[in-house]
Structures are given as structure tokens and as C-alpha cells.
Design a protein that fits this description.
Distance between the termini: 73 Å
Structural class: mainly alpha
Number of helices: 6
Largest sheet: none
Order of helices and strands: HHHHHH
Oligomer: single chain
Shape: elongated
Strand content: under 5%
């Protein structure tokens, strides 16, 4: 015969599993809506790619080694984020904090490079007002940069929760969503690098 305490424990685990599953499913839906948002920006960029209004083209403006460095930084941050989640599931608090700290630093580095690129373009008179092509470029890449900024703020808050609460059920659930969000942004950036920078220099 099962003890009452054991039954309550099993019920509690079942409730937690249901909440976890619903949260992850709901977050997947959010990511799909974000895909629609980025697809709109990509489509707009593809249509306006050659609308330079007599101004410089992507081949003249973009530097592939610089964009490749940004890509490697973001891909490395995705790897360290994965290591952080492995540490979370192993209840290794110190390792998780270290991995998230490295991920955060890489994210800041990526944003700094993106800001440098934007400011350099603006200083040379190639702002979003210069042409439809540049307007589409700033909108697409800037939208991704805004998402990275939100992800970094989220990561900073979650690191504070790990320090204060440890690996509680709610903390792990939120960290899982954060990890999904960060990997999603890495995938989006790969498309940006390919469509905007790589093809922009080749075509």
C-alpha cells in the first residue's frame, strides 16, 4: 500500500511536469511568432536590397571578416549557454554561473561590435535615412540586436535568481526558456550573416 506522503509527492511531481510542459510549449509558440517577425524583415530586405538610391551597395559597405568575427562570438556564446544548462541539470551552481557569465560577456562583445558597425555607417553618412536598402538593413539587424539586448537583461536577472534561490523548479523552467531564446537568436544570426553579409559581398 502506497504511503500518503508518497502519493502527495507523486502528485506534486506530476503537477510540476505539467506546468513545465505547458511553459515550454507556450514558449515554442512565442518563438514561432518571432520567426514570422524576422521573416517579414528578411522579405523586406530582399525586396529593397538593390534600392540604394544611387548610394553605396552592400559590397561597398560590409566587411566580411568583421561579420564573421561577430558570428563566431555568437556561436561560441551558444556553446557556453549549452554548457551552462548542462551544469544547471547537474545542480553545479558554480559551473553554471561561470558558463552564464562567459555567455553574457560574449553577448556584450557582440553588441559592442554591432554598435560599432552602426555608428561607423552613420558617421560616414550611411544611416537608415540614406536609402531603402540601408533602412531595411538597420531594421533587420537592429531588431536582432534588440532581441540580444533583451536576452542579456534576462540572463542577468536569472543569474541573480540562481545566486539567491539556487536551482528551484521555477528557476530551471525560466532558464530553459532563456536557453531556447538564446539558441534561437543564434540561428537567426546565421541567416542574417548568410543573407545580408555573405551574399551581400558576393552578389
Amino acid at each position: 500500500m502506497t504511503a500518503p506522503s508518497s502519493v502527495k509527492h507523486d502528485d506534486h511531481l506530476e503537477v510540476e511536469h505539467e506546468i513545465y510542459s505547458k511553459t515550454i510549449f507556450g514558449f515554442w509558440i512565442y518563438l514561432m511568432t518571432d520567426c514570422v517577425l524576422f521573416a517579414t524583415f528578411f522579405t523586406t530586405y530582399a525586396v529593397l536590397f538593390q534600392s540604394t538610391a544611387g548610394g553605396p551597395s552592400s559590397r561597398e559597405l560590409f566587411h566580411l571578416p568583421f561579420a564573421l568575427t561577430e558570428t563566431m562570438i555568437l556561436l561560441t556564446s551558444s556553446f557556453t549557454c549549452g554548457l551552462a544548462m548542462l551544469a544547471v541539470h547537474r545542480q553545479a551552481k558554480g559551473l553554471a554561473m561561470a558558463a552564464f557569465a562567459i555567455t553574457f560577456a560574449l553577448g556584450i562583445s557582440f553588441l559592442a561590435m554591432e554598435f560599432h558597425e552602426f555608428s561607423h555607417l552613420v558617421q560616414e553618412g550611411n544611416s537608415w535615412q540614406r536609402s531603402a536598402f540601408l533602412s531595411a538593413f538597420f531594421s533587420l539587424v537592429g531588431c536582432h540586436g534588440l532581441h540580444i539586448t533583451c536576452g542579456l537583461l534576462w540572463m542577468f536577472v536569472m543569474m541573480g535568481q540562481i545566486l539567491m534561490r539556487g536551482f528551484s523548479f521555477s528557476t530551471v523552467r525560466r532558464l530553459t526558456c532563456l536557453s531556447m531564446f538564446w539558441h534561437f537568436l543564434d540561428v537567426i544570426w546565421i541567416f542574417i550573416f548568410t543573407v545580408v553579409y555573405l551574399l551581400g559581398v558576393i552578389l
